[in-house]
Design a protein that fits this description.
60s Ribosomal Protein L30, Chain: A; 7 helices; 6 strands; six-stranded mixed sheet; alpha+beta
Length: 228
Amino acid sequence: MRRTTRWLQLTDEGELFLSRARAILAAMDDAEEALSRRRERSSGRLRTILDDALEDARQPINAVFSTKANRWRRAHAPSSTFWRAFFTSPHSTPTSTTMPPIELIQSPGLPVPGGYYSHATRAGNLVCVSGQLPVRPDGMHTGDRPFEEQAEQTLKNLRTVLEVAGASLADCIEVTVYLVGVEHWKAFNEIYARHFGDWKPARAVVPVAGLHYGYLVEIAARAWVERD
């Protein structure tokens, strides 16, 4: 409801409408919760009566809310898919109408993460890759290896996770790099350029004091992939 809130607050009428809409929805939720609790403790004829009561309670409030909301939208709100989706159902929110399911991705070609996270997540066309470290596919740590070797392994791991998610380095739209020591920036930039080629997504290189297992580099990324 965040986008709705920002837009409606532009006018006093929008603020009043939003306040009333919240009150209506809160009252509906409280009434339905009370009836639902009573229904769970009931059976037979009484349960049927409570089912009818729940349905009857929704209809007049839904009708009033929908009518007033659509009248306000036609007068003040821009025409958009978001507004049509929001006002179609009084219970709709941007999350329920626009947010696709989130898929957790674990790459079979890499060790299971030691922390409580997935290698990546995918929501619709967006792929978010967790920070990749220069751990080898067999689980061996490379924290004692030269920086150049660590950077190569980290970028390979990033590529591996992206491929499992149906993406590639060329689909990246943002890359965040954590370096232990700014003196490695030049060497990293050269290795990075070899892997990404002509594709130059948005990037941030963040100097840090240290990383797990003595690693010198970590890379996280986001990619955009068109679905079939």
